[in-house]
Specification:
Blueprint: H1 2-17, H2 21-44, H3 47-65, H4 67-71, E1 75-77, E2 80-82, H5 88-113
Antiparallel strand pairs: 1-2
Helix pairs in contact: 2-3, 3-5
Length: 114
Amino acid sequence: PQGQRCILAAQGIKRSLFASETMDWNRILSGILALVYLCGAFFAADAATALKVIAGLALPMACIWFGDELGSYVGVMRGQGITAETPGCLVRFGGWLILLLPLIIGTITFCRAR
């Protein structure tokens, strides 16, 4: 009984986190990349740098993981009115762009230095 309830609860959480197959891949790949960034910062520098990386990953990860929810916001933000919803795919695209920006800049820098 207790074990069955835990299994059912875990299955419900899994279903809610991975609502669609597209979100599965977006979440898995972005999570792996974020983990690579985090491990790189921790091993290349220190824990303080890793905490800064976590703070920097918050926005792109939120955009990728919760693009539909963030895109559906309509209201006032910083005194500016948001009058229409933004498609979730565009929010996720923006999150991926921000998440991949360090790799893009690093690749360009590496190629120009050669």
